[in-house]
Amino acid sequence: MAERAVLPLILSGYDDAWERLDARLAGLSDDEYLWEPVAGAWSVRAADEGWRADWQDPEPDPAPVTTIAWRMWHLGSDCLADYLRASDVPRPVAVTGRDWHGTAAPALADLRAAAAAFRATMAALGEDGIWAPMGPAWGPFGEEPWAALVVHATDELAHHGAEIALLRDLYPWRA
Prior knowledge:
CATH class: Mainly Alpha
CATH topology: Four Helix Bundle (Hemerythrin (Met), subunit A)
Number of helices: 5
Oligomer: single chain
Helix content: 40-55%
Number of domains: 1
């Protein structure tokens, strides 16, 4: 059997997950972005200076229901932008930590920027580089190849994207 490149295949999966999510975010309003489907939902809330995502450490069990705003923060800043921390790529979004946006348009712009920067960085590693260990900055995951991170990021996009899509499906039916 002929040896085949893996990088195009895993990036294709990433692209599919991202394109599905991006399409589902079209027309997102600020009200829908911040809509809390249940009492006690985690969201992004006005703080002293800007907006911050709700968080508790350790995470409650069961985990709280979250808003679209919280999911977009988690994907854009907490995941995709933060995954680039050990690379030479500048952080693709200006916000850090739990800071995020109180309206949909800048949140979507930053989520798109983070998704594009992550993909470009992984593609630039090439077929050989994608199999290199991520390195000491990744702690217990340092010996894992970059390919594992692309697969993990794809999983994050797919499952949080599905949660966002479900919230969008439920929003027109809110009480």
